[in-house]
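Friendly challenge for the regulars: who can give me the structure tokens for this chain first? No prize, just bragging rights.
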Amino acid sequence: MRFVSLAFAVIASPALGATAAPAPADLDLGGLLRVCASLAVVIALIVASGWILRRVQGGNARGGSRLRCLESVAVGMKERVVLVQAGEQQILVGVAPGNVRTLHVFAEPIASPTPNAIAPAATFRNVFAQWRGAAS
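First reply, four minutes later:
Bragging rights claimed.
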């Protein structure tokens, strides 16, 4: 406990030479420009990394995908039963942590291959475009 109080006394000591903050008139315009340029470079690197990562991973696979999850139902805390469309065939699969099993392969489809109950999630681009339209 003595050490903590001694540490606070040393930190708060005026002998450490606390420097006064520069007056607003002493603003360095060159330094501010460097900070803004550095921030712009960091943001550009983040955007470029996202673009490259999306290209490397194959982009948006929703369009011509031959494998779809049609429906999914939770049957336990971590267990699910999933209806998967693979090409023209529908397969009922049981999914648990570390375990995936085929439960049944259907001879003829039991559900339409395009789910119509759930709308696709809004992308950032769509939400941003709506926001910009509302702001104008």
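The first strand starts at residue 67 and ends at 74. Residues 67-106 form one domain. Your move, everyone else.
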